[in-house]
Write a structure and sequence with these properties.
- Helices cover 45% and strands 17% of the residues.
- By secondary structure, it is of the alpha+beta class.
- The protein has two domains: 3-146, Regulatory protein AraC (Jelly Rolls, Sandwich), CATH 2.60.120.280; 151-259, Orthogonal Bundle (Arc Repressor Mutant, subunit A).
- It is globular, with a radius of gyration of 21 Å.
- The two termini are 25 Å apart.
- Keywords: DNA-binding, Transcription, Transcription regulation.
- This is Helix-turn-helix transcriptional regulator.
Length: 264
């Protein structure tokens, strides 16, 4: 199903109350449940069962009965139920978990769709739902690609994605991944056409671009959050990477964004 054809039926927010047994229930349309915190189990009348935890999204197809149980006291979810669609394709919303990892945007969008729905802005909520679903599919696709990575490369990429603001060295990464520096360099160049240093820089610059669009952050604060101890060094590195200063990018991102060499 095309993401722009999705229609939201309703949205909800769940906070733990108790663990009294709930009855099986089903929805006419598919359901997306984002687990913001805690843990629970979800059982389906198909016989399948999932253990769901923070940063997971559970995709439930239309008409499949299910219930949640064994919720921890900190369990919190946002759930979005879609309208049934005459153009629905069964493969679009097959039963599965999608791990968001560190993707804060998708997490925010779940809450924003709920808030739009609460404010009776159904058309805007459905539009954001379409973007959210597209993003979830992209996250899922990237995760599938990474499953084919060499174990050391996968560990290095995940570590860098979480700790890009820290002082990471190639030798330190290699040691954490139990491989030699030369092998780690080879794995990065084979997969990304750049070495680990350049890959780390691309992660820092991606976050820097995002922070620069928020005027609440001074340039020095942006530098610190993306792993540069000196604002001047950050400014030089940013200009070398993008061809413009951080100030120029902040003032005119549409003019300069296409100069970016982006590595996913």
């Amino acid at each position: 199903m095309e993401s722009d054809s999705l229609q939201l039926s309703y949205a909800g927010h769940y906070l733990f109350v108790d663990n009294s047994m709930r009855v099986m229930h089903r929805h006419r349309g598919a359901e997306l449940v984002f687990f913001r915190a805690g843990f629970c189990r979800t059982r389906f009348d198909s016989g399948e069962e999932f253990e769901c935890q923070a940063a997971h999204v559970l995709v439930t197809p239309p008409g499949l009965a299910h219930l949640q149980y064994d919720n921890t006291p900190d369990c919190e979810t946002w759930y979005l139920v879609l309208e049934e669609s005459p153009v629905f394709h069964p493969g679009d919303f097959s039963l599965r978990l999608i791990a968001l990892g560190e993707d804060a945007i998708a997490a925010e969008w779940f809450q924003q769709v709920f808030e739009l729905c609460e404010n009776h802005e159904q058309q805007t909520a459905s539009a954001l739902l379409g973007l959210l679903w597209r993003r979830l599919l992209e996250i899922e696709s990237r995760a599938e690609e990474r499953r084919n990575f060499h174990p050391a490369l996968l560990k290095a990429v995940n570590l860098m994605s979480r700790r890009y603001s820290e002082d990471l060295s190639v030798s330190g990464l290699a040691e954490c991944c139990s491989v030699s520096v030369s092998l780690l360099n080879m794995l990065f160049n084979r997969q990304f056409k750049v070495g680990p240093r350049r890959y780390l820089l691309s992660l820092r610059m991606r976050e820097a671009r995002r922070l620069l669009l928020d005027n609440r952050y001074r340039i020095g604060e942006v530098a610190e959050q993306v792993g540069f101890q000196s604002a001047n060094y950050f400014a030089r590195a940013f200009k070398a990477y993008h061809g413009v200063t951080p100030e120029a990018y902040r003032n005119g991102p549409p003019e300069f964004a296409d100069r970016i060499t982006f590595i996913e």
